[in-house]
Amino acid sequence: MDCDSMQMAITEENQSTERKECGRRGRKPGRKSSSEKVDVKAKLERSRQSARECRARKKLRYQYLEELVADREKAVIALRAELERVVHAMR
Predict the structure, then answer these.
(1) pLDDT digits (tens, 9 = 90+) for 51-76
(2) pLDDT the model gives residue 74
(3) Where is the segment annotated Disordered (predicted)?
């Protein structure tokens, strides 16, 4: 019984190494059909469009943040002025 299990282990090991030696999966480099070239052009155009949209979103985000900072600066100035009035009123 022990010999049988040992022989099965050896056979399974041989099969697993045979599978690894079969070859590679996936696309072969350098073999592009004309439809794939069109797909590449479409992909590049989608990428460009996505980049344009990303830059537009970034511009809007920076505008929003700049407005937020300006509003906060105005609030700080108003609070400082109020503080000065309160300090002078206490004297």
Answers:
(1) 999 999 999 999 999 999 999 999 99
(2) 98
(3) 1-50
Single-letter code of the amino acid located at 75? A
In angstroms, the CA 37 to CA 77 distance is 60
Q: The tokens of 74 are what?
A: 């105005």
Residue 27's SS3 state is coil
Q: What is the pLDDT of residue 15?
A: 57
Q: Which amino acid is residue 69, in one-letter code? A: V
CA–CA dist 27, 25 (Å, integer): 7
> Measured between alpha carbons, how far is 17 from 19 in angstroms, rounded to an integer?
5
Q: Residues 28-63, buried b or exposed e (16+ Cβ, 10 A)? A: eeeeeeeeeeeeeeeeeeeeeeeeeeeeeeeeeeee
Dist CA 16 CA 9 (whole Å): 11
The total number of residues shown for the chain amounts to 91
Any idea which residue has 């090991």 for tokens?
A: 13
